[in-house]
Amino acid sequence: MRFAIYLPPQASEQEKVPVLYWLSGLTCTDENFMQKAGAFKLASELGIAIVAPDTSPRGDEVADDESYDLGQGAGFYVNATEAPWNEHYKMYDYVVDELPALIQSTFPVNNKRAIAGHSMGGHGALIIALRNPSIYSSVSAFSPICNPMKCSWGQKAFTEYLGKSKTKWKEYDASELMRHSKDVIPVKVDQGESDDFLVEQLKPEALVAASKHSNYPLELNIHNGYDHSYYFISSFIEDHLRFHSAHLNR
Ligand SMILES: N[C@@H](CCC(=O)N[C@@H](CS)C(=O)NCC(=O)O)C(=O)O
Predict the structure, then answer these.
(1) Tens digit of each residue's pLDDT, the chain (250 residues)
(2) Atom of ligand 1 minimally distant from the CA of 32
(3) Does residue 179 fall inside a structural domain?
């Protein structure tokens, strides 16, 4: 597995810094966010490290599919149970356990963690934080897939990776998880209104309904004229960094 890390100038053995994990979307690698988001200037001021994993396992020995929304580049942050995917596709465990253990034993970081992501990675960030509210101080997402059980990207991936049983799917659906969540952490979501994937794939209205059902506090901002691209992310990444910084440094 490849990952990218940004370390702010404050980071040293004397001053260990908190970490924001960033999960990218379909077709991305560990590089997209690092090259396009424009996050480092403010991260250096706030003293936050940023770790961006790849979006799936990779390699000639690793199962793949011709389509862009399944296989390599499309791990969906689940632990696959179905062949051939279950041999390598354990992105949930990788992001929650294996990668943070490696980061903490290798770099001058403390154990404070936040998580954010975009699209498929927004889905990943939300489900990981909602399932582990004691580990993450806050979660944010740009244009997340809010209800993967009810959209074609999610249904295709979950059928392949998890099989047909919807019980397993619910463990990886942010709207299902929020509907039944009791332990609350701060959640911030930004969504562009001119995003071509908004209606068919992203469905923020499902997350809003879940938050109302369980009284889960949700900050959702809809932005007129913004699309699904990294131009949208780079326009609002500073808001997300300040949001996480406020909770990481509590
Ligand atoms: N079919 C589209 C969907 C892929 C897509 O929009 N990917 C988003 C995440 S869902 C992305 O971040 N692409 C990479 C980039 O813009 O750097 C494509 O292949 O371009």
Answers:
(1) 999 999 999 999 999 999 999 999 999 999 999 999 999 999 999 999 999 999 999 999 999 999 999 999 999 999 999 999 999 999 999 999 999 999 999 999 999 999 999 999 999 999 999 999 999 999 999 999 999 999 999 999 999 999 999 999 999 999 999 999 989 999 999 999 999 999 999 999 999 999 999 999 999 999 999 999 999 999 999 999 999 999 998 7
(2) 17
(3) no
Based on the structure, what is the number of domains in the chain? 1
Our answer on whether the CB atom of 231 is closer than 6 Å to any ligand 1 atom is no
Residues serving a catalytic function are 119, 195, 228
* pTM confidence score: 0.98
Q: What is the CATH number of the domain that holds 195?
A: 3.40.50.1820
Residue type, 92: Y
Is residue 175 included in any domain, yes or no?
no
Q: ipTM, 2 decimals?
A: 0.89
- Domain encompassing residue 119: 3-78+90-144+185-199+218-241
Q: How far is the CA of 107 from the centre of ligand 1 (A)?
A: 30
Is residue 53 in a domain? Answer: yes
* 168-189: b (≥16 Cβ within 10 Å) or e: bbeebbbbbbbbebeeebbbbb
Q: Is the C-beta atom of 234 inside 6 A of ligand 1?
A: no
Ligand 1 center from residue 16 Cα (angstroms) = 34
Backbone angles phi, psi at 202, to 5 degrees: -95, -45
